[in-house]
Amino acid sequence: MNEIAGEYGRLKEYPRLINFLGGWMNEYPDDPYSAYYLLMIAYAYTRQEADEVAFLYYDLIVKNYPDLMVKGESIHFIALNQLITLARNQERLVRYYEELLSRFSGKIDPGVVYFQLGQAYEKIGEWNQAIGAYTRFLPYYGTVVPGFPDAYAYAKRLVDFNNSPKNWTFESLPALLSTIQNALNTGNSNRLWSYRAKVNFFTRSWGQEDDDNAGMAEFTLVDFMRGNQIRYAAELDESSNANEAYLRTWGWYQYISTWYFYFRKIYFPLDPDIHGRWEWAGIYYGEKW
């Protein structure tokens, strides 16, 4: 069977391959190699760019047939990887990722799959499960996730925010802006600094790459104010929008005297009481490009 089907494949006679294997399976439904025949049929449909049909066969293999080893490779493992490539339904993707992790953890990069599982959970609105998947991903520091170069930073921001008290957030941008301006007017550095986000807060120059902001706990504003009256623009920067805002300030006691305060609308559907509120999320040094 393998030799005949393989010859059809080599000759690219895919319809004949499909008819041959399909006819055999109809006549001998209990053939112990049926999963292998289905894999070859799915491959033939893939080669004919009939991905939707191929998907049905790969799914049938995993759900309805016992696994087989062919040349040292699991047919279910091959089918699952094809299903992940072809699937458009996120609920199905969740099932395929979880099956890879539970059955083939030694044959995959678990870090990549945990992150992809988190992404799939996010897209179907299962935020508790998404946070759980991202939490399991974080120990795999240095993992490169295809198509998502900042995967670690993305997952860490969500996990850290989820585990925080979130007691620095403001109901609206005007409320946050008014509080920051009042603190600047008083010149009280400790009071001003207390309004910052307690996780994921950053300080960087324009264009600087994101990092983990190690050492932020020791950063204070005292040395940068030194009794100076910090001034701020009467209006938010013109690049501000419904989700992000920038306030230009100047008079800071250092070689870069202009700072932009960065405010961010919080995206966190897991907690409706926090989702949509605002936070002071960071500082950019220097004039805006």
Summarize the structure.
This protein has 289 residues and is an alpha+beta fold.
3D architecture notes:
- By secondary structure, the chain is an alpha+beta fold.
- The chain has three domains: 86 residues; 71 residues; 113 residues, Nuclear Transport Factor 2, Chain: A (Roll).
- The chain has twelve helices and seven strands.
- The strands form two sheets. Strands 3-7-6-5-4 form a five-stranded mixed sheet, with helices on one face.
- The radius of gyration is 28 Å and the shape is elongated.
Gross morphology: elongated
For the biggest β-sheet, the strand order reads: 3-7-6-5-4
Mean pLDDT, nearest integer?
A: 92
CATH class type of the largest domain: Alpha Beta
SSE-based structural type: alpha+beta
What is the distance, rounded to the nearest whole angstrom, between the alpha carbons of the first and last residues? 67 Å
CATH architecture classification name of the largest domain:
Roll
Number of strands: 7
- What share of residues are in beta strands? 5-15%
